[in-house]
Amino acid sequence: MSPTVFRERGYRFFFFSREEPRIHVHVISGDGEAKFWLEPEIELAKNFRYSRKQIKEIEILIEEHYDELIGAWREHFGS
């Protein structure tokens, strides 16, 4: 199960249900995919095929939706 938290500008932001406990979000689009840690701070963990410009755009979207992402993580994983 991979619950989608939100979609924006062609990116899908989601979690994998059975993965490591550190809070993070996966991002995917037709151009590539990435993983970002959300705590202790927003940080790129993995990047596959996104340009630096796209990574910056994604990071801004994560910042804008940070509270929503953290809330969705806690609701989904119960922590």
Q: What portion of residues belong to β-strands?
A: 25-35%
Order of strands across the main sheet: 1-2-3-4-5
Ranges with pLDDT <50 over ≥5 residues?
A: none
Quaternary state of the chains: single chain
Helix content: 25-40%
Radius of gyration, in Å, reads 12 Å
Strand count: 5
Mean pLDDT: 95
Q: Write down the overall geometry.
A: globular
Count of helical regions: 2
* Alpha-beta content class: alpha+beta
User: What's the main sheet like?
Assistant: 5 strands, antiparallel
Number of domains: 1
The secondary-structure element order is EEEEEHH
Separation, N- and C-terminal Cα atoms: 18 Å
Compact summary:
With 79 residues, the protein is α+β, with helices and mostly antiparallel strands. It has one domain.
What does this entry look like structurally?
With 79 residues, the chain is an alpha+beta fold. It has one domain (4-77). It is 32% helix and 34% strand. The protein has helices at 52-64, 66-77, and strands spanning 4-8, 11-14, 24-29, 32-37, 43-48. The chain has a five-stranded antiparallel beta sheet with strand order 1-2-3-4-5, with helices on one face. The protein is globular and about 35 Å long.
List the helices and strands and how they pair.
Blueprint: E1 4-8, E2 11-14, E3 24-29, E4 32-37, E5 43-48, H1 52-64, H2 66-77
Keywords for this entry:
79 residues
